[in-house]
Design brief:
93 residues; mainly alpha; 77% helix; elongated
């Protein structure tokens, strides 16, 4: 029989939660630049969303709905693959 309480999240006391937040914030600021990383991620997403329909228009599809759908997919999937590669690089440290 499966334990019903198995998937219930554990609630930390307020002091432990505050300490965990402070430690995580210090780690993020010490080991990386979260604002720069987010700026790069958003810029690359925007660039992918702009470059995809421009390239498709030059390549031939005249249907704007098709170009729009493909551009949304490119903008959505582009940062996903880059963040996975970055995650692999960071985890290999």
């Amino acid at each position: 029989m499966r334990n019903v309480m198995q998937n219930v999240p554990v609630r930390l006391p307020a002091v432990a939660r505050a300490t965990a937040i402070l430690r995580m914030r210090a780690r993020l600021l010490r080991e990386g630049f979260p604002r720069v990383q987010m700026f790069i991620l958003v810029a690359l997403t925007g660039l992918a969303g702009f470059a995809a329909p421009t390239a498709m228009l030059a390549a031939g599809p005249d249907a704007m709905a098709l170009r729009y759908a493909l551009a949304m997919g490119a903008a959505y999937l582009g940062p996903c693959t880059r963040s996975q590669v970055a995650g692999e690089v960071l985890s290999s440290r």
